[in-house]
Structures are given as structure tokens and as C-alpha cells.
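If your schedule permits, I should be very grateful for your opinion on a structural question. Thank you for your consideration; the sequence and its C-alpha cells are set out here:

===
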Amino acid sequence: MATLKSLTVNRYRGVAPKTALTFAPGVNLLLGKNGTGKSTLLELICMVLSSNFALLAREEYDLEFVLGTKQGDVRARVSNERRLVPVAELEQKAVDSIASFQFSAKIVVETSDYGQCSISSDPDGVRVSAPHLDLPAVGSPPFGPSTLLPLVIWRGAKSLGEHPLRDALRDAAAEIMHFELNRADESLDLFNEFVAEASIRTNGKHGFIAYRGEWLTPHVEAQLKEKKQSLALDGTEIPEFRRLVALLGFKSAEIRLDLLESSKDDEGNELRRYGNIGIRFTKQDDTVIIHSLLSYGQKRLLALFWYLSANPRFAIVDELPNGLHYEWIEGALEELGERQCFLTSQNPLLLDALPVESEQEALRRFILCRTGMQDGREFMVWRSPTEEEAGDFWRAQQVGVMQVAEILRDKGLW
């Protein structure tokens, strides 16, 4: 399973230049006051793990990051630089020049058999270089911030023809490919998005396409093939949903999606779209409550479990404990499982539920978010604890007198 090992911010919005962060393979906790960029960092991590920087198409940035894979590290540097485009290029005469942006990417893939393979992307195309290989540049449409970096690797692999290195690059590209990785927010935005947007489409002879409901597809595949007017399934037959139902104290749950559209493609294959999701929970006295009537905390927990079901590798969650009972917080943390997690919280309940197991873990788990002055400007300053800070924290936790949150405050880390 791929993990984000490090991130270096050379230039990005109001972040201090040359900010270098390393991450734990398990839980990473972002600590800091409001306004220090915790949510900004979570959004940046989403873009890095999705390898999609489309939201920054009109911004300057320079980022480096390392993704760990089964066969070795994938190192990438992506940048978007402002430049002035001459009128001759634009064939416009109303202005002398216009601001534009030039995206570039350089990726280094470590392979067990062929060492490091370098793949670079710029407006001229894709170039691949590796030890003992003389490879020409491969022309291609210009890549931009919305280009997924795994596709750059895939394009480089394609240029290798039948060379064995091709398969190693394709494997690396597949392992770091993550679509639509979003931040789970601190309010009900995620819940409202799932309810409004969850859908499953039949795609003619090519199968099924799901949006916000990918994890439901295997459970309703037989019904999709039967072309039913609505899809219905027992939520307790889905392991993730069964755990949610138990945590909420309900007896059972039913999930339904209605047929919203039906048409045919040019080849006569039927195309159908299901949506308008409805979830009915049965209480212990057999009365029923629908998802829209759940409490704030119940909706957040439902959205969080839905999010985790759709994201088996990572969890990027803002203010996870917000609105949740302590028992639900523990259940949510258990549901995180082996995912690499990036969490924020102003609530000590989350911190106290995540004791640190070693001094080295203290060094890697916490990301300290602050603001500070550099050259007369205020920047967001993100860093890991120093070895001294991690050691002080660990020794205080070993004493066993104070909770994790109390120690962090006492040591000036939170």
C-alpha cells in the first residue's frame, strides 16, 4: 500500500518556503490554533495523494514529495510558474503580453531491477531516462496541473515498448493512483454531498460506474444486471455498515437507490442511472428513522464511515471528534484500521484516545502548525517536533500522571 513519506513546500501560498515534513505510515496529527493552516495542509495532502493539482492551475507553487510503494519510493517535484506570453504566441494585438502558467513535473521511480528511472514532463513532452538506457523524448499533448502524475508515468512506460522496465513503471503508476481523494470536513458538507451525489450508472456493455457510492456496487451488482427499477440492500450485509449500525445503537438499516434515468447508447445498450439515495434505520423497538432525521453527530458518523468505505488506503479528516460521543470517537478510530491518516482536532478526546507508543512515534506523529515572521512577512510555519521535544513528551507520558492532551499543552506543543 502506497504511503506519503514526506512533503517539501518550496513555494505555496502563505507557507514558509522550504517547509519540510515527514509523515508516519499510520496516524498523523496536525496540532495548532485556528488560522495556522491545518485545513490548508490537509487540502494540500489531498492534492498530493491524488496527484491532481487542477485547483492550483492559476497559482504559483513548487512542491516535492515522496510516495512509498512496494517496489521502492516514487519521488516527484511539481511546479507551476508564472510567465509572460508574447503577443506573437497568442495572435492577439490588444495587449503586449499576458500572464500564463507553465506546469512541469519530474518523477523518479525506484525499481528493484533497474535502479532509478527518471520521468519528466514539460510542454515538449515526456522524457524517460534510466541507467544503461538511451531513450528518445516522447511527444505528447502538453501536460498541465490537472494531469494525474500516474498518467505521466504510464506515458513514460508506454515509450519503452517491450522493455521489462515498462511493467515496473506501470505497477508503480497503479499503486499511487487515487481518484477523488477528498478531505472529510468538520461539519455536514460531506454528509450532504454523499446524500445528493451518490449514484451508480450502468455503462452499456462496459459495466458500472459509481460516484460517491463505489463501495456499494459489488453488493448490488446482481440487481443492476436484472435492470430493476430500484436497488435495495440490507446494510448489515456490508461489514462497514454493520459496524456503523451497531455503533449507532440501531437494529438494522436498509439502503435504497431509485432509477432516475434510462436511455440507450448508439449500439442499443441500455444506460441507467440510479440515485436519490435513502437510508432507513430500524431502532430496537422496530420504529424507523430515515437518514435526514438523524442527529448532527449521527450524520457525521454516517458520513465518516461512508468516506472510509470509499477510501481504503487513506483518511484525511478535519476535526474528527466534532459532535461525536467518546464511544463513537473510539469506534471511528478503530475503523481507520491500517490506513495512513491525517487528522486535526481541537478536542482533547481525540488526542487522549491515541496514546504514543514510543519516542520515535512522538517524533513522527505530530505536525506542529504555527505562524511566524520571516523577512517582514507572516507565514504559516509547519514542522515536526524536535528530538528534544519528542523526548520530553515521551518521558512525561511514561510517568502516567497526565493525559496526552495535557502533556502537549504543558510542553507547548498544542
